[in-house]
């Protein structure tokens, strides 16, 4: 028999608020960790490590199957996870070898050598992204066969989660430089809490918020109502490829080292 669809009520929304808060904080941690890692490792390594959430989600899937009776991840998904872990280990050989990506980098401020701390923080961003996707699944795609709770409407999910994420990012920025950050200083935008609103940064921030934020993450949340987090996360693996090419063309990413090429292909 067809399971009847229930109307979404205020009581359903109130019960989902803790999940929305965790989702928003996780998204903010994901953004903050990734942005920090860009300044401490190469763009290629940052993008590859922050995109490791399919590996994390596969491991979570095995945990849920073992202890909560969830569906077991498919054999090929698990095989791909181990290939990805091997690829990550191979990538780290570029860190130990001290290879440099400076050959095609025109930006003097760009990081030209991968670092362990930068890669690790980017991976923390992948962990946060995994929590964000799992939270989205829990409220946007309830278990099949259960009439309650109904899936939360997209706009009721996206707006508070994005708001909490922005507050989380701003709070971490203030905590990172508590003595030198001002509200707005046109002569020192890098240390201004509202520096993104300046004419120099506003167009780029509007693009990041509108195209990447609203367009990208709203699409992700839309897909979570129909697909598993593993499938959605795997589709995001195009980001390191496209982002690496854009970074190379923009002059902020040189030609990666050999271990990064080999490990990145596996990842």
Automatic annotation (TrEMBL):
This is EamA domain-containing protein. It comes from the Eukaryota. One of its GO terms (cellular component) is membrane. Keywords: Membrane, Transmembrane, Transmembrane helix. It comes from Triparma retinervis. The chain crosses the membrane at residues 43-63, 75-93, 113-134, 154-175. Signal peptide: none annotated.
């Amino acid at each position: 028999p067809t399971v009847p669809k229930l109307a979404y009520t205020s009581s359903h929304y109130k019960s989902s608020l803790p999940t929305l808060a965790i989702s928003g904080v996780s998204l903010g941690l994901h953004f903050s960790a990734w942005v920090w890692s860009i300044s401490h490792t190469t763009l290629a390594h940052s993008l590859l490590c922050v995109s490791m959430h399919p590996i994390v989600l596969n491991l979570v899937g095995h945990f849920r199957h073992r202890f909560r009776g969830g569906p077991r991840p498919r054999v090929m998904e698990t095989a791909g996870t181990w290939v990805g872990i091997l690829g990550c280990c191979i990538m780290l050989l570029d860190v130990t070898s001290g290879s440099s990506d400076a050959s095609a980098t025109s930006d003097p401020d760009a990081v030209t050598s991968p670092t362990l701390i930068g890669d690790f923080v980017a991976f923390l961003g992948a962990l946060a992204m995994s929590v964000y996707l799992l939270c989205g699944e829990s409220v946007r795609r309830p278990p099949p066969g259960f009439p309650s709770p109904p899936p939360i409407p997209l706009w009721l999910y996206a707006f508070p989660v994005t708001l909490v994420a922005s507050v989380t990012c701003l709070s971490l920025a203030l905590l990172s430089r508590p003595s030198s950050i001002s509200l707005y200083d046109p002569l020192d935008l890098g240390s201004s809490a509202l520096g993104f609103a300046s004419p120099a940064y506003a167009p780029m921030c509007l693009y990041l918020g509108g195209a990447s934020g609203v367009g990208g993450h709203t699409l992700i949340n839309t897909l979570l109502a129909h697909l598993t987090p593993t499938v959605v996360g795997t589709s995001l693996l195009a980001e390191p490829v496209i982002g690496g090419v854009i970074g190379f063309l923009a002059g902020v990413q040189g030609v990666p080292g050999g271990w990064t090429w080999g490990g990145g292909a596996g990842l």
